[in-house]
Amino acid sequence: MARRALITGITGQDGSYLAEHLLHEGYEVWGLVRGQANPRVSRVRQLLQDVKLVRGDLLDQGSLISAVEKVRPDEVYNLGAISFVPMSWEQAELTAEVTGMGVLRVLEAIRVCSGITAARGAGSGQIRFYQASSSEMFGQVRETPQNERTPFHPRSPYGVAKAYGHFLTQNYRESYGMYAVSGILFNHESPRRGAEFVTRKVSLGVARIKLGLAGELRLGNMEARRDWGFAGDYARAMHMMLQAAEPEDYVIGTGRTHSVRELVEAAFGAAGLDWEQYVVCDQALHRPAEVDLLCADPKKARTQLGWEPTVSFEELVAMMVEADVALLAGGGDPHQDSSWP
Ligand code: NAP
Ligand code: GDD
Known about the structure:
A seven-stranded parallel β-sheet has the order 3-2-1-4-5-6-11, with helices on both faces. Strands 7-10 form a two-stranded parallel ribbon. A two-stranded parallel ribbon has the order 8-13. The model has no long low-confidence stretch (mean pLDDT 96). The chain is globular, with a radius of gyration of 20 Å. It contains eleven helices and 13 strands. It is 40% helix and 14% strand. It is α/β, with parallel strands linked by helices. The structure holds NADP nicotinamide-adenine-dinucleotide phosphate and guanosine-5'-diphosphate-alpha-D-mannose. Guanosine-5'-diphosphate-alpha-D-mannose (GDD) is lined by residues 83, 85, 134-136, 186-187, 196-198, 201, 219-221, 224, 226, 260, 285, 287, 290-291, 294.
């Protein structure tokens, strides 16, 4: 019998790469989708025809219990979240509910459906759980590079909600013996990245300028530094974590850091353009509190899981610019369902 995986956040960037990877590994893949007429569901149906869908919402405990009961998964990947950091200041309570409390609801759905109590442990053959934790939890970093033991100092309501989900995942592992792990993933990008995140905003901006559809690109803090990798590599890491003999948390990143300015230089350069003629710095796009520097120490994942990134920063930027030039040249709309490469 094929192993079954249930993915929350199937309509997002990571959900798509993870579903592709698990289908390739022979899994029966189920995706949790919310809403009565979620426009992103048709995109999933187009790209991932073999994925089965089940309705549910991270805000609704009963729906998660029903989904786990229906799917009877071997593995659950909780990728669903409000994931755009600036939105977490505008809708802090909703972010806490979805990104933070949503983790509790998924863990409880697994616990209840598995009949686990404080007196009756999880035992063998249990459902394995993956939580999408984030390098945003490190926030104002205490050391560089950051590893699994680096203390957290989140700088946004999103980072605080992720830290709650992270500690709760550890707690369910320790309290109930559940196979529950957190991947502390650094920024990962692709041509499927949401248009609101800086890498995609830049690759789309470059494509518009290259094609004569725009004359400038407005950006916020150009000095922030991130460890940017390719999302497909990171989806593979999620799956590897759940195959380990013991449930443990892992940092996933490339170990290289670049500033937004360097990203911009590379992206405009990939299209043969001089960024200084087009980029406008806009104070309104700066954040109330910034994460200045993220850089992963992925040694544990490399030595214990054998995980390695396969796409360099330069290759990633070139891949995204090329994809967006082709998309816009073909009349595609990055906000439309059919535009997902
Ligand atoms: P994304 O593209 O923003 O996708 C977020 C997903 O969450 C969407 O499928 C969305 O579905 C779903 N969602 C939102 N609210 C929900 C709710 N109430 N109930 C159920 N699902 C809901 O994010 P991503 O980049 O793929 O990231 C995946 C996960 O990894 C997120 O938890 C993110 O915080 C975390 N993470 C990402 C990165 C990164 O660099 N990409 C790094 C570290 C951690 P709808 O279509 O219904 O809106
Ligand atoms: N989005 C955006 N738009 N960011 C900008 C802009 C802009 O116009 N100008 C500068 N930046 C800077 C931000 O201030 C931030 O320092 C950096 O670019 C990266 O911003 P995002 O791409 O929005 O990503 P993020 O680092 O805040 O969060 C992403 O990575 C986290 C992991 O570290 C998201 O995917 C989170 O969900 C994820 O947890």
